[in-house]
Amino acid sequence: MVRLSRIYTKTGDGGETALGDGTRLPKHHQRIAAYGTLDELSSMLGVVLASGIEAPWATLLRSIQNDLFDAGSDLCVPGAAGEKLRILPSYTERMEREIDRLNERLQPLASFVLPGGAPQAAWLHLARTVCRRAERHVSELMASPEEKERVNPEVLRYLNRLSDLLFVLARAANHWGEQDVLWEPGKNRE
Question: Measured between alpha carbons, how far is 25 from 33 in angstroms, rounded to an integer?
Fold first, then answer.
């Protein structure tokens, strides 16, 4: 159980922060950027929830926010799984089932979708781009020779699938794709 008795500790005033295993890293370290972006993504989903998104999707988004804290914990405590909280394949499989279920009601796309349409769809598109950034940070962390064995690759798979889910949810929030704004290649050429 997590217990926070003080909000400020002053231990980060010098530009470092502690990982879950006690290791101190500079706040600009790629690992900190990765799980910090997960926190940003969770906050974006909080904006979507605060906008009054429909009940079944609200439950899904709250569940995803919880997953993102699990993923942040996974990244915050590097190394072998052991008894540490880790993202498992079941997280990603749940995303895939949700994508398949939602996608059944959507018409196939004939063009790329521009972010927009209904306000909630626009927020979901923004959340998707933050998710893609988090995915890039985790990918970069995994490419680092000193970090590659200390990152759970399932976090990357989960984020990849989550960005797909957020795209499908944005289309669903656009009245099941009817209000999607489609890209028109070369529309403004002279």
Answer: 11
